[in-house]
């Protein structure tokens, strides 16, 4: 466990990589923090109308959650340390050192962490997101439904162990990061998926 801080720092730094900003610069798009919701995430990149940039942002944000855990496992970290490394990557996305600790909401990164923890839980949460997104066309609502489903699935598969605790904490943070979206959903003013927001 003496190496756990190294894994946590590694996870946090990988999670801090702002793919929305990086991809937007590569595509010559405006900084995603300068328009729409101001959130450096795939949904806000999609509001530029560039679907490829949004897809690459989504994949990059998901990949960093999984990659941090894969590296920790390759370096010999145990199951709990790997799970905590994934949580650190998620926190890096929420509070990235490279963006003065003002990051995204963490949906894609959370999915990457779930893939690293348990593929079945990840598939269930992703299915909940996809179904909600198709039916309601609200990315935020889809994220909230997935965040509610993931801990239930984790508890069903693992009981109350380290994996489930990481999933529960991560999903609580994800819901907290969507508090403004919840208010807009209740007020009927939330933007739908693919809708450009000035």
Describe the 3D structure.
- The protein has 198 residues and is mainly alpha-helical.
- The chain has one domain.
- It has helices at residues 4-15, 19-26, 42-46, 51-74, 79-94, 107-117, 119-136, 139-158, 162-177, 179-187.
- Helix 4 (51-74) packs parallel to helix 6 and helix 7 runs antiparallel to helix 8 (139-158).
- The longest helix has 24 residues, at 51-74.
- The radius of gyration is 16 Å and the shape is globular.
- It starts with a helix and ends in an 11-residue tail after the last helix.
- The mean pLDDT is 92.
Layout of SSEs?
Blueprint (H helix, E strand, L loop, with lengths): L3 H12 L3 H8 L15 H5 L4 H24 L4 H16 L12 H11 L1 H18 L2 H20 L3 H16 L1 H9 L11
The number of strands is 0
User: What is the multimeric organization of the chains shown?
Assistant: single chain
Give a quick account of the main beta sheet: strands, pairing sense, barrel closure. Answer: none
How many separate structural domains?
A: 1
Quickly list its features:
198 residues, 70% helix, mainly alpha
What is the gist of this entry?
This protein has helices spanning 4-15, 19-26, 42-46, 51-74, 79-94, 107-117, 119-136, 139-158, 162-177, 179-187. With 198 residues, the chain is mainly alpha-helical.
């Amino acid at each position: 466990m003496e190496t756990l801080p190294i894994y946590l720092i590694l996870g946090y730094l990988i999670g801090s990589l702002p793919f929305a900003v990086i991809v937007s610069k590569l595509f010559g798009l405006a900084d995603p923090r300068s328009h729409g919701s101001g959130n450096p995430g795939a949904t806000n990149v999609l509001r530029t109308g560039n679907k490829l940039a949004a897809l690459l942002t989504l994949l990059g944000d998901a990949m960093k959650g999984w990659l941090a855990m894969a590296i920790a496992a390759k370096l010999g970290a145990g199951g709990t340390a790997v799970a905590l490394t994934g949580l650190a990557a998620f926190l890096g996305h929420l509070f990235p050192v490279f963006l003065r600790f003002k990051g995204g909401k963490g949906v894609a990164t959370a999915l990457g962490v779930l893939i690293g923890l348990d593929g079945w839980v990840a598939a269930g949460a992703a299915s909940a997101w996809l179904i909600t997104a198709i039916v309601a066309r609200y990315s935020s609502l889809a994220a909230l439904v997935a965040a509610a489903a993931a801990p239930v699935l984790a508890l069903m598969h693992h009981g109350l162990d380290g994996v489930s605790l990481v999933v529960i904490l991560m999903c609580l943070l994800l819901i907290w990061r969507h508090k403004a979206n919840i208010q807009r959903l209740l007020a009927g003013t939330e933007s739908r998926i693919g809708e450009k927001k000035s």
